[in-house]
Specification:
- By secondary structure, the protein is α/β, with parallel strands linked by helices.
- The chain has a single domain, classed as TIM Barrel.
- Helix content is 37%, strand content 16%.
- It contains nine helices and ten strands.
- The strands form two sheets. It has an eight-stranded parallel β-sheet, with helices on one face.
- Helix 2 links the parallel strand 4 and strand 5.
- Helix 1 packs across helix 2 and helix 2 packs parallel to helix 3.
- It is globular, with a radius of gyration of 17 Å.
Length: 275
């Protein structure tokens, strides 16, 4: 039995069962089309469905982080994010809200508008992000997605490399004033890693989950498909592989699962039938 604790923005989450982080993409180009929401009303509708399905945390992103995605301006990211965030916070005053962003200015605006967590796939690479994290004390999710892995070419990555990178970024963050118990590690599944590496990282996850809060974000990523080199479709779904990956993550100590299919994952974790 696990007894996890996570410090986020003045409160401490205590839980002994993996939390489900529901994905809400405020973008037209995120890789999984069913998670996309354009506009405030669409975002609020999806948020309500995710909460009804059992999401413990909502993760809002206004810039796609899929490989090859185009960067958007800070102004565009904020224009997509803030109206949806404010509407969702008003509808759900207590649910933790995570913001998937690499920009300190966006993180600052989001935290002031009611967000609780910064999910930064660049692991605080924006020089100003450290000041935002130290001032507002949100939950902070650090991801193993070094810049050299964003080239589009996948390579083998070991759990030792992931651990070294995240340990270094964590030490830097703590030195800047970010509380250690606010930091979560994400092994960066799908970011520049071969299919075999992604599955091996899940099998080796205990090496980092034994003394760190870990979130796994395998949902619908290419390596979960029956044929990773083909587009996702009815005959090449990533759902079955996602379920397998998430169950493996939980078996090896993951405290959180970031998913598109909240209802299905919640049922499986509670012992329901597998898809």
């Amino acid at each position: 039995m696990y007894a996890w604790r996570w410090q986020i923005k003045g409160r401490k989450l205590r839980f002994d069962f993996p939390l489900i982080v529901g994905i809400l993409n405020l973008t037209p180009d995120s890789f999984y089309s069913q998670s996309r929401c354009e506009g405030r009303s669409s975002a609020l509708k999806r948020a309500k469905q995710l909460v009804a399905d059992g999401a413990d945390i909502l993760d809002l992103g206004a810039e796609s982080t899929r490989p090859g995605a185009a960067f958007v301006s800070e102004e565009k990211e904020l224009a997509r994010l803030l109206p949806a965030l404010k509407a969702i916070r008003a509808a759900f005053p207590d649910i933790p809200i995570s913001i998937d962003t690499r920009r300190a200015a966006v993180a600052k605006e989001a935290l002031e508008a009611g967000a609780d967590i910064i999910n930064d796939v660049s692991s605080l690479s924006d020089p100003l992000m450290k000041e935002v994290a130290a001032r507002y004390l949100p939950g902070v999710i650090l991801t193993h997605a070094p810049a050299e892995l964003a080239s589009g070419e996948n390579r083998d990555v070991s759990i030792g490399e992931v651990k070294k990178f995240l340990r270094e970024r964590t030490s830097q963050a703590v030195a800047w004033g970010v509380p250690r118990d606010s930091i979560v590690w994400d092994p960066g599944l799908g970011f520049g890693k071969t299919t075999q590496s992604n599955w091996q990282l899940l099998m080796d996850l205990k090496e980092i989950s034994s003394d760190n809060l870990v979130m796994c974000a395998a949902s619908r990523k290419r390596f979960t498909r029956k044929d990773p080199d083909a587009p996702e479709g009815p005959g090449n779904s990533g759902l079955e592989g996602t379920i397998k990956a998430n169950l493996l993550a939980v078996e090896n100590g993951a405290a959180m699962l970031r998913v598109h299919d909240v209802a299905e994952m919640k049922q499986i974790l509670k012992g329901g039938s597998r898809a």
